[in-house]
Amino acid sequence: MIIPKLHYITQGDSFKEVIENIQKACTSGVELVQLRLIGASEKKILKLAKEALKITSHYQTRLIINNYYKVAKDIKADGVYFENENSYPITIRKHLNSWQSIGGVANTLEDCETLLDKEVDYIFLGPFKSPKTINNIKPALGLKGYTAITDVLKTPIPIIAFGGINTNDVTNLLATGVSGIAVSNAITQDFDSIKTFHELLNASSTQEQRHSFDNK
Questions:
Q1: pLDDT on residue 136
Q2: Which end of the chain is more exposed for a tag (fewer CB within 10 A), N or C?
Q3: C-alpha–C-alpha distance, residues 72 and 81, integer Å
Q4: pLDDT of 15-64, one tens digit each?
Q5: Are 12 and 4 in contact (CB under 8 A)?
Q6: Domain extents in the chain
Q7: Contact 112, 106 (CB under 8 A)
Q8: Which residues are registered as beta bridge partners of 6?
Q9: DSSP state letters, the chain
Q10: In 3D, which of 57, 81, 99, 84 has the Cα closest to residue 160?
């Protein structure tokens, strides 16, 4: 299974805006779109995911669905990502196709070890910086936090950094041992930045992080 080094987490205040942003991201060359819509029902997510898949399929871009693994299986998305460490069912693998990936979020070394026990395909580790939201309770890791975890963890599973990342952060983040990054704001504000992120990550299709699961 191949996990790209750059993940675009969707943004948008409406169904239409999310779809438009996915279109722009795919047009700009992003290799993976993570579909996220806060507060939406599963029915609405399913409808949105079907529209998103039309776009990502056209551009041969991977599509990951946040949280709703039934939606991911239904539309044959490339996988599912759980943004709450407590929401990951241990038995999730049997509910998905063998080629669909599973990702989970972590903030500590212990979180990472728990996810590895659950056999995830990649780990979202963060946040890198503290987001400007009052409901965030996870401390920002910073460069030292990532290094402290990756030095101990020693896993072939890709570690994807997230949380307020911009192009100026990429080189230093990669030096901590993470495999790639997930970006939302910086890309939504400037879709042309995808090219810069790719150059910094050296994330061509032949240089992606590879994992030992069977290829799709």
A1: 58
A2: C
A3: 10
A4: 999 999 999 999 999 999 999 988 889 999 999 999 999 999 999 999 99
A5: no
A6: 2-210
A7: yes
A8: 181
A9: -EE-SEEEEP--SSHHHHHHHHHHHHHTT-SEEEE--TT--HHHHHHHHHHHHHHHHHTT-EEEEES-HHHHHHHT-SEEEESSGGG--TTGGGGS-TT-EEEEEESSHHHHHHHHHTT-SEEEE--SS--S-TT--SPP-HHHHHHHHHHHH--SS-EEEESS--GGGHHHHHHTT--EEEESHHHHH-TTHHHHHHHHHT--TTSSEE-SSPP-
A10: 81
What is the reported pLDDT for 35?
98
- Residue 108 is encoded by which pair of tokens? 């500590």
Within 13 Å and on the Cβ side, how many CA atoms surround 209? 22
In CATH, the number for domain 2-210 is 3.20.20.70
Q: What's the Cα-to-Cα distance from 187 to each of 82, 89, 158, 191, 195, rounded to whole Å?
A: 21, 31, 21, 5, 10
pLDDT tens-place string over residues 61-106: 999 999 999 999 999 999 999 987 666 767 888 889 999 999 999 9
Are 88 and 115 a contacting pair, CB within 8 Å? Answer: yes
Residue in the structure block whose two tokens are 């901590």: 176
pLDDT value of residue 130: 82
β-pairing verdict for 6-9 and 2-3: unpaired
